[in-house]
């Protein structure tokens, strides 16, 4: 067993070294030229600068490969999850990937990329190496990045926007939709693997990482950027694998749950783009959610909380303030090791908005974006849901 573990770790190290040598050397001008143009889709690159100076990349696929005549195309915005980027929505074949399918179905598709990811463009003054560049958690993604990207889309389309989020993209939505200025731009939302609570997370890898306080270890070592391709990350993975609860022979399953419909032969292609960096502080915030079972702003500790919030504890995100007429489709999976059924159930007791549920018994965390069967299982129902809302004409 010990030998096997060592073998796995070696394999990982070799994998990461390979990536560092070859994977990172591959450079693209942007997501459009990396994936969309090669498949023959129209695609435009935009940038938008947040209040706090981050320059985000946003892509637009104005129509599908065949430009069918549709009077007004409703904008739909796709928000990726943790350690992912806008590429997430386009990584399988065009008839399997949500981004392509929406464009071919007549939507005006917009793709978000949060700060720090590969398709974003740094900061107006801070270099990527600066500690301050990584001084944020999903609070800022919801408070700064999302409103900036949505404002750009609204300015250019003058239309309410459909929202699709996966994983951290749903955390961002739950947090941002409590803001009246954001929700008034939205027509409806589809939340895939919806997360507002994390205390019942079953992922053995995440559990072990929380128990080992890897967020604090990273902080203590002065690591502020979380780059899974770094030697530091390999060391941390090694540490988790040495703790007995995790089967590192199948690392992905230990992290996300057993994805039913993952195409293993495409992993080398996925690794061309993913994983994207995030910040240690963001991980710390997510670990706080796991430890405390709450959905609040970042916990700075007693003194820090008084300074930032004038209160000893961080304020909760008020899910009840999401308008009750707001239509939301939530798709959740029976084998999802991140969005556990108990946590989803708890969240559902806290929201008043109009929720339609889609339960996919055999889906784990990555199936929602990478399943080769997602079109029939999820994307067709999602499109039908959006089309039904446009007939109902939701207005806040
Ligand atoms: C959107 O339009 C408003 C009003 O013209 C402008 O002030 C704002 O800077 C624009 N925002 C973006 C992100 O384009
Ligand atoms: C899985 O990926 C490989 C490599 O890209 C491809 O040849 C194969 O057709 C894919 N299988 C499915 C079911 O999409
Ligand atoms: C089934 C289960 O483990 N439920 C737990 C989920 O998290 C909440 C909040 O921390 C606990 O109270 C439940 O016992």
Automatic annotation (TrEMBL):
GO MF annotation, one: hydrolase activity, acting on ester bonds
One BP term from GO: lipid catabolic process
Xref: Pfam families: Abhydro_lipase
Domain spans labelled Partial AB-hydrolase lipase: 33-92
Coiled coil: none
UniProt KW keywords: Glycoprotein, Hydrolase, Lipid degradation, Lipid metabolism, Signal
Keyword Metal-binding attributed: no
Active site per the UniProt annotation: 167 (nucleophile), 336 (charge relay system), 365 (charge relay system)
Domain of life: Eukaryota
Similarity comment: family membership: Belongs to the AB hydrolase superfamily. Lipase family.
PANTHER family: LYSOSOMAL ACID LIPASE-RELATED
Protein name (record): Lipase
Organism: Adiantum capillus-veneris (Maidenhair fern)
The organism's taxonomic lineage, starting at the top: Eukaryota, Viridiplantae, Streptophyta, Embryophyta, Tracheophyta
């Amino acid at each position: 067993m010990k030998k096997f573990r060592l073998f796995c770790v070696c394999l990982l190290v070799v994998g990461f070294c390979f990536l560092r040598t070859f994977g990172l050397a591959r450079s693209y001008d942007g997501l459009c030229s990396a994936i969309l143009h090669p498949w023959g889709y129209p695609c435009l690159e935009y940038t938008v600068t947040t209040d706090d100076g981050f320059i985000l990349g946003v892509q637009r696929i104005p129509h599908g490969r065949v430009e069918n005549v549709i009077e007004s195309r409703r904008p739909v915005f796709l928000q990726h999850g943790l350690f992912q980027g806008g590429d997430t929505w386009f990584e399988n074949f065009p008839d399997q990937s949500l981004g392509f399918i929406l464009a071919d179905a007549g939507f005006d598709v917009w793709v978000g990329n949060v700060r720090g990811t590969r398709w974003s463009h740094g900061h107006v003054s801070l270099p990527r190496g600066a500690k301050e560049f990584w001084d944020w958690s999903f609070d800022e993604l919801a408070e700064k990045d999302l409103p900036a990207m949505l404002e750009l889309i609204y300015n250019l389309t003058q239309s309410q926007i459909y929202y699709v989020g996966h994983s951290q993209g749903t955390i961002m939505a739950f947090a941002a939709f409590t803001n009246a200025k954001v929700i008034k731009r939205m027509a409806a939302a589809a939340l895939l693997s919806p997360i507002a609570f994390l205390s019942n997370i079953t992922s053995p890898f995440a559990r072990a990482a929380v128990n080992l306080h890897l967020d604090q270890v990273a902080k203590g070592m002065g690591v502020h950027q979380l780059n899974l391709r770094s030697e530091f990350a390999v060391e941390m993975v090694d540490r988790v694998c040495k703790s007995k609860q995790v089967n590192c022979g199948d690392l992905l399953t230990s992290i996300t749950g057993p994805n039913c419909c993952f195409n293993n032969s495409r992993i080398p292609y996925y690794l061309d783009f993913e994983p994207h960096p995030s910040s240690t502080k963001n991980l710390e915030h997510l670990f706080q959610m796991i430890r405390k079972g709450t959905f609040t702003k970042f916990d700075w500790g007693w003194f820090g909380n008084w300074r930032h919030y004038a209160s000893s504890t961080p304020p909760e995100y008020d899910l009840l303030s999401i308008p009750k007429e707001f239509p939301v489709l939530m798709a959740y999976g029976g084998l999802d090791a991140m969005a556990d059924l108990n946590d989803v159930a708890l969240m559902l007791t806290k929201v008043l908005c109009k929720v339609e549920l889609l339960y996919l018994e055999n889906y784990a965390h990555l199936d929602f974006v990478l399943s080769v069967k997602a079109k029939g299982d999820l994307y067709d129902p999602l499109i039908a849901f959006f089309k039904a809302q446009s007939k109902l004409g939701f207005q806040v």
